[in-house]
Amino acid sequence: MALALTVLLAAGAACQSKDHDPSVEPGRPAPSAAGPPGFTLVASGDVLPHSSIIDRARFDGGGRGHDFRPMLAGIEPVVSRADLALCHMETVYGANGRYSGYPTFKSPPEVAQGLAATGYDGCSTASNHSLDDGAEGIRRTLDAMDRAGVRHAGSARTEQEARTVTVLPAGSAKVAHLSYTYGTNGFPLPQGRPWAVNLIDQNRILADARAARQAGADVVVVSLHWGTEWQDAPDDQQTALARTLTAARTGERPDIDLILGTHAHVPQAYEKVNGTWVVYGMGDQIAGEMFNHQGARDPRGNQSTLGRFTFAKPQRPGERWKVTRAEFVPQWFDVDAGRLVNLNQALAAGADVRAVRDRIRQVVLSRGAAKDGLTMGR
Question: Deepest of 87, 134, 239, 322, by most Cβ within 10 A of its Cβ?
């Protein structure tokens, strides 16, 4: 588990697999590029504990609270081997057994312990559910993540915290993690706390990214809670913002090195835009049985990907850390068993999951990412 560093934002910043599929990479983590100085980053989608998920964690806890570790165990080998692992914590935490699912979520704080045990180093926390329990919900969530040793970005307890960008070490690199959401489901920002949740604003995002870089970040990763729910394709706002953010440069160096998207509930495409990888939507990593806007049970809501990116250290100071290997790992949350499944590992073990694995692959590669080197890993 990586230790964490923080730097203050500049004052000027706005307030082949065993089933013989040749497209599957071998079952090992991506090697660090350029020897020891490189690093591998993995990132996954929304952790969204519905009431059924809370009940399962209580059962797995055996009467001793809530245990989310068994739920996540299927992906732990991939996550724990990465130099840096990031998740998206979509909900806030409750207290004293007062927990709830949709529509206003209050999750057990033991979620943070489960994420830490799985190997996650940090999570984005800016989402449309960030204010489901007001400022107190944010405080409880970030307090619990601090106790578990999981770093966070996107929401804040104090103005000072809001102006401090999270920077995590990964190999010899310092990686800044920024997080923003399109909105908060109509809940207003708490009175006197306009900084409590980061909202998407392209000028603010670029100012924060540049400030993080000026303060010493080698790699800047931006998590965006965006897009249209239940839509496989990224919407026009996503693609437009992705073009703008990836086009921004300071000198010869891009201001942002990787964009990670969440919110749509379904896996969306990966695409290299202006030389930078964009994951439009990773899908829900953990969620209960999902129903779409037509009220129909929609299995896509329990499908997701984990992105894995290997970065190489530049040969000369001041140059960009480049992604030398890009992969996606298809996942599925089995709501009946209450377990997260690595689909390629399950397929290799004989499970009948080829159809769902192949559907996810088709979506992920729908914007031509294969030609830019994206492969499917295990």
Answer: 87
CATH code of 118's domain? 3.60.21
What the block records as the tokens of 224 is: 């965006």
DSSP H helices in 234-353: 236-247, 343-348
Q: For residue 318, is it within any domain?
A: yes
**Could you give the CA distance from residue 90 to residue 134 in angstroms, rounded to a whole number?**
14
Query: 3-class DSSP state for residue 200?
Result: coil
Tokens of 56: 């399962």
Best CA proximity match to 307, nearest among 4, 19, 42: 42
In whole angstroms, give the CA distance from residue 328 to residue 360. 10
pLDDT at residue 309 greater than cutoff 60: yes
Rounded to whole angstroms, the Cα distance separating 56 from 110 reads 13
The DSSP letter of residue 215 is: T
CA proximity to 18, closest of 26, 8, 30? 26
DSSP letter at 197 equals B
Determine the 3-state secondary structure of 186 from DSSP.
coil
| Domain that includes residue 75, residue range | 5-219+283-376
Residue 225 in domain: no
Taking 3-state DSSP, the helix, strand and coil percentages for the chain, each rounded to the nearest 5, stand at: 25, 30, 45
Q: Assign 151 to helix, strand or coil.
A: strand
Taking the C-alpha atoms of residue 84 and residue 48, their distance in angstroms, rounded to an integer, is 22
| 20: confidence class by pLDDT, cuts 50, 70, 90 | very low
Number of structural domains found in the chain: 1
pLDDT digits (tens, 9 = 90+) for 87-114: 999 999 999 999 999 999 999 999 999 9
Question: Sign of the CA dihedral 290, 120, 55, 147?
Answer: negative
Q: Hey, which residues does 258 pair with through a beta bridge? A: 221, 277
In a domain, 266, yes or no: no
Say if CB 124 and CB 89 are below 8 A apart. yes
- Judge whether 245 and 226 are in contact, CB under 8 Å: no
The tokens for 351 are: 């499970």
Length of the chain: 378
Residue 254 lies in a domain: no
